[in-house]
């Protein structure tokens, strides 16, 4: 629980907040004047500690707990199936780091981890990676989505779990309207990465059994944690290799 959000949730009743945050323990052991010398967030916590309707308890063991029913992600499309009914699940992730020997360029890469879910556990099968040079974050995310779609079997139910809200929202909500409007937004401007989104439209029409959902990256709880972590590790490895090999290209155009 976010410590600063506990009082509205209490709704006037006495509650106990259990947290693994070490800094909170420092605040609970300090007087209010001393606490004000701590980190600004600790000052906010100290203000809450004055309240008599909330008690704080620090428990370091809480960090190891797994709450599989609690997932930090945006609402999924209404037609999404139970996780184990998908034959294939793709997790996409990207990574970037400063390119060797440069000051203003980055070497980026993305990775896709495919597998399936059984008995609440993700079973990885294949890993796909690609270096994309000095690339914008949105284009990197979009290229990862395109690769996942290209590896999707049209005859099998497939779930793509993406950390990019930009890609998921566009795929599920805006793509149909963009195509009708000639890939122009509500202001009449050309949609960024128009050519890439054109590829997505063509792939989507051939893949009636694919669903795309969003999950926040680097989460520690939830059914998607393992798959997302594996994709994250693969992306970091790919970008490290790309950086050492000096795989650097010029910054792409919006339609690249």
From TrEMBL:
E.C. code: 3.1.26.4
Gene Ontology terms: biological process: DNA replication, removal of RNA primer
Keywords: Endonuclease, Hydrolase, Metal-binding, Nuclease
Catalytic activity: Endonucleolytic cleavage to 5'-phosphomonoester
Coiled-coil regions listed in the entry: none
Family matches, as Pfam families: RNase_H
Top EC class for this record: hydrolase
GO molecular function, one term: RNA-DNA hybrid ribonuclease activity
Protein name: ribonuclease H
Family: Belongs to the RNase H family.
Domain of life: Eukaryota
Domain RNase H type-1: 84-240
